[in-house]
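Lab notebook, design round three. We kept the backbone fixed and only want residue identities now. Task for the bench partner: fill in a sequence for the structure below.
Input structure tokens:
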């Protein structure tokens, strides 16, 4: 297993147990970003939210750079960058590929109600499946993790 695969697997384990109820899309994204920050801080990495990307912005914003949801500096190993998205944005994938080309471990934390298409190349995809429903004021999303628990033992009188 490569370092990038191990880092992606570690983040997937952290996301696997995450639960939330009745959240908007923006709130889900914020919950996931907070989980990424917590995961990285627990590994004693330096964590930067809204970190500068290697990708420059197009005109008329030339001279400025795109940002990343989370960037992490590790004491040993390549830096880690994470983007969190609900949609399959080509620009996000291009940005993460550029980060990987610059020597960073690039993770794309994709969340949604359906299947997530695989990505080729150096970008690792971590998924977070949610359920969604229409509600007054817009769509709401839930993530409930169920675990199998055996029935309790009953005593015989």
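Proposed sequence:
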């Amino acid at each position: 297993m490569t370092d990038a695969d191990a880092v992606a697997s570690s983040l997937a384990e952290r996301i696997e147990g995450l639960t939330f109820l009745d959240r908007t899309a923006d709130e889900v994204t914020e919950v996931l970003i907070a989980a990424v920050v917590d995961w990285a801080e627990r590994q004693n990495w330096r964590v930067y939210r809204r970190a500068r990307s290697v990708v420059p912005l197009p005109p008329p914003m030339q001279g400025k750079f795109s940002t990343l949801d989370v960037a992490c500096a590790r004491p040993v190993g390549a830096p880690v960058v994470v983007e969190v998205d609900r949609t399959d944005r080509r620009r996000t994938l291009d940005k993460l590929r550029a980060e990987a080309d610059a020597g960073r471990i690039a993770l794309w934390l994709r969340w949604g109600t359906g299947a997530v298409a695989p990505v080729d190349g150096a970008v690792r995809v971590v998924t977070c499946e949610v359920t969604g429903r229409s509600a007054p004021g817009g769509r709401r999303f839930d993530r409930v993790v169920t675990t199998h628990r055996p029935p309790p033992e009953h005593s015989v009188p």
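Keep this in mind before ordering anything: The chain has a mean pLDDT of 92.
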